[in-house]
Amino acid sequence: MFTGIVEELGEVTAVEQLRKASRFRLRGPLVTQDAKHGDSIAVNGVCLTVVETADGEFTADVMQETLDRSSLGALTQGSRVNLERPMALGGRLGGHLVQGHVDGTGEILSRTPSEHWEIVKVALPENLSRYVVEKGSITVDGVSLTVVEAAADWFTISLIPTTLALTTLGLKQPGDPVNLEVDVLAKYVERLLAAGVDPLHTDPAGDPR
What we know:
The chain is mostly beta strands. It has helices at 64-69, 161-166, 184-194, and strands at residues 8-18, 21-27, 40-43, 46-54, 57-63, 80-84, 104-113, 118-123, 137-140, 143-150, 154-159, 177-182. A six-stranded antiparallel beta barrel has the order 1-2-5-4-3-6. Strands 7-8-11-10-9-12 form a six-stranded antiparallel beta barrel. The two termini are 32 Å apart.
């Protein structure tokens, strides 16, 4: 589980194409300080498993399913990436609950700079539209953000100077793809309601009253 608070702006140092998979080597001195084989690190919002670490770098295998459902397949040597380690139990939840399971990809539509922030408009896939609401939370390339406006096929986010400077969102241009993860709580509620279960009126045994 992650919070969407990016810890480090990393870099892809190598990409090896495998059969129906890819192996990435990524540089991230901070996130690899205590990382070991089998640990998880979020890369642009995608939860990946560490294969090995050495000299401030780590490798991760990315299966075809992940390449198809995220923008990781577009990464090449030299690409900058957002990196985050899993949250520690008992720590502060700075963003919102993020699984690192990408729901789909969007596209940067426009950027409108202001004196102290920048409004970014992002295309929204139709199947995710119902989960995105004004003032709600969404994860864009692994960054926990608040939705400013929400329409049927787009939403906007407001980026402060810190986010622009310390994440890849400061580098993205119109036309660039981004990974999107919606609030998992909304998906659970939807599933329960579709099954005829009222999550607010359930007895301790789990049966609807």
